[in-house]
Structures are given as C-alpha cells and as structure tokens.
Specification:
0% strand, mainly alpha, 3 helices
Length: 105
C-alpha cells in the first residue's frame, strides 16, 4: 500500500509540474500574440520570431493516477474489514477471559 501511495504522490507531482508548464506556455503564447498584434497595428509584418512559440500544449494522461487511487481505496477497504474482524475477536476473547477470572457468587 505504501508503494501505491508513493506512486500516487509521484503522479501528482508530475501533474503539478505539467500544469505549471502549460501555464507558462500559455503566457508565452499570449505575449507573442500581443507582440504580433502590436506589429500588425503599426503596419509591420510578422517575422519568424513572433510565430516561433506556436507549440501544442502537452497532454498528460490521468488514467494511471485514477487506477492507483482506486487500488489504494481497495486496499483501505480490505484493511478496514480485517481490522474490524480482529477487533471483534479481541473484544470477545477479552470478555471470555473476564468471565473465567471473575469470582463466582
């Protein structure tokens, strides 16, 4: 279960990094668009420098993170069931031990 949690954390870090990169790329594209519009408004032609930032925004699949989160949830449910059964047995044994050691009247 700890490896699944580590995998999930790593995937969340990758996703956060990807989101920051996407935001930076969008800002660069917006700045280049503004520069190009300013040049066109002044009657100049757009050169290669202003059109060079036109890159596609990368896509990061999230299916792996979903599967790992589902695995963690499944392990947690199994663990909760096992602990519940163990606690029930422990209280039953404790009650039986108290009955046997209690003085008879």
């Amino acid at each position: 279960m700890s490896t699944s949690i580590d995998e999930l954390l790593q995937d969340q870090n990758k996703f956060s990094y990807n989101q920051r990169q996407v935001q930076r790329l969008k800002q660069q594209q917006q700045q280049q668009r503004q520069k190009m519009e300013a040049k066109l408004a002044n009657g100049e032609t757009a050169d290669d420098e202003t059109t060079s930032v036109r890159r596609n925004i990368p896509y990061l699949p999230r299916m792996d993170a979903y599967l790992v989160a589902h695995k963690i949830t499944h392990y947690s449910k199994k663990l909760r069931t096992m602990i519940g059964q163990s606690m029930t047995k422990m209280f039953e044994v404790d009650a039986l031990c108290r009955e046997q050691t209690a003085p008879s009247l």
